[in-house]
Amino acid sequence: MRFTRAAKRGRPGTSVVEATIVSLVFFVLVFGMLDLGLGLFRQTLVSQAARQGARQAAVHGNLAPAGWNGGAWGPNAIDVPATANGIPLVAAVAPFLVGFDLDQTRVKAEWIDGDNDIEHRVRVTVSTTYQPMFAFIFGGRDIPLSASSTMPIAH
Question: Is 111:58 a contact under the CB 8 Å cutoff?
Answer without folding.
Answer: no
